[in-house]
Amino acid sequence: MTFETSPAVTRRNFVRVGGLTAAAGIAVACSPSAAPVVAPASAPGAPAGAKPAWQEEYDQLVAAAKKEGKLIGMSLVGEGYRKTMDAFEAAFPGIATELQTFNSASIWGPKVAEERKAGIFTFDIALVAPGSALRTYRDAGFWEPYRNYLIRPDVRDDKAWVSGFEDNWVDTKKELAFATDLTVRNSVGINTKLVQDGEIKSSLDLLNPKWKGKMIAADVRTGDIRLSITAMRLSHGDEAARRLLMETETTMSRDARIVVEGFVRGRYPVAVGVRAEIYKEFVDQGVAGDTKMLSLPDIDYVPRNCVFLFTRAPHSNAAKLFLNWILTKPGQEIFTKVTAGNSPRTDVAATDPSRFPKDLKAYKVVNREEEFDALLKTDALLKQWGLI
Hints:
With 388 residues, the chain is of the alpha/beta class. Helix content is 34%, strand content 12%. The protein is built from 13 helices and twelve strands. The strands form two sheets. Strands 1-9-8-10-7-11 form a six-stranded mixed beta sheet, with helices on one face. Helix 3 (79-91) links the parallel strand 3 (70-76) and strand 4 (96-102). Mean pLDDT is 89; it is low at 5-43.
């Protein structure tokens, strides 16, 4: 195994979000304030035309958020997250948004912990994977329960969600982490000029000596590939995962963009642990070349990335408004479109039907809190193998 170095900067500086282009017009048109909501009737005895209680509360929240005038978010890498903040800003004029992006929890976690130790509370919301966020940083006091802050009836409607509202909470107490997508993450990408169709039908085919020294992968010290390794381990046993990491002479990089560029540019026939958001940028720009992602259920996973609310958020009302907005139909339509994901809402069309999990039981890792023991075992094995 070799390592490929990343650029010196592994996270973006704060991005001050300004105005939008034509796409913003779509976001404004689709904003929840413009979307009709089926709401319960006013209370008996209320004046004709009176707003229902939830609407009064929501209007007060919007006003309070606009008074704060700012929302500061944190997310994984990918232009889609910035575009999501753009769309929120367009939907609620007067609330400026800032965003900082990170390659993984191994970077954002220590940074936030150090800031908080120094009494600095920067962020309002986070759009991240639930693994380390719950396993490590819940006990550090990062996250505030927000179930009771979801006041829109179209968000709390059980029929609006695949498997129901309750089933889309990832944490066991169902209060900290609501899933923002329901998308299969294909772990393996190939350059079709260098890999023939059908040569790789499962993760075990990656162990073929033909690919020795010819693969690039996300460094196991960064987030999502641990889910891939866990899925492979649960599918084929620990030894298969060990061989993939230890015997194939795979080049590893902590930078998600380097991994994508590796197989897009043809330097490597195969890439493992491809970040979907980064690959989408190459596809959208027409520079993905002769590449494709493979569907391999024995190593693919369903990450259920989530939205979190920080404790002591400096702009708590704007944060609560964002939570309500991103889980509406319009918010989900925008978010899943720009992040190459599929929505768990039943009224939002799949952005990529080929990656919508028709049967979650086919996948070993769906990234719920009850599955974290399997991920912890993967971490223990990675330490035993000297990789982390």
